[in-house]
Hints:
The protein is an alpha/beta fold. Helix content is 18%, strand content 41%. It has helices at 13-24, 80-89, and strands at residues 5-10, 27-33, 39-44, 49-54, 72-76, 94-100, 103-109, 115-121. The strands form two sheets. The chain has a four-stranded mixed beta sheet with strand order 1-4-3-2, covered by helices on one side. It has a four-stranded mixed beta sheet with strand order 5-8-7-6, with helices on one face. Strand 7 and strand 8 form a beta hairpin. The protein starts with a strand and ends with a strand.
Amino acid sequence: MFLEHVNLTVTDLDRSIAFYCDLLDLHVRWKGDLEDGRLGAHVGDDRNYLALFEATNDGPAPYDYTRPGINHFGWVVDDLDEARRRIDELGATIHLDADYEPGRRVYTFDPDGHEIELVEYHASA
């Protein structure tokens, strides 16, 4: 079993496609019209992806660890230093940078305020 996709609603589809493709070295698997006339895209690899749907209303993504909902989603990366460099190049900021067992991790936000964790595990993990 594996997680196939996570669906995010974003304010600017092309901006989000570029952000996730550049940050995580993903590619566009599909892009087109949704059933309700909005635009959507799938960015990922051959196994899993992010489904991105363009919003009809503006506003930041909810960010509240005290209420039910998704707080963040995490990606395992091979090289956290490279991920930090990409975050910087994209103009995003790291708001938490921590070593922990069994690895190291950073947290950032995408352009719509969705929190992302990038983690590199120690070789023995």
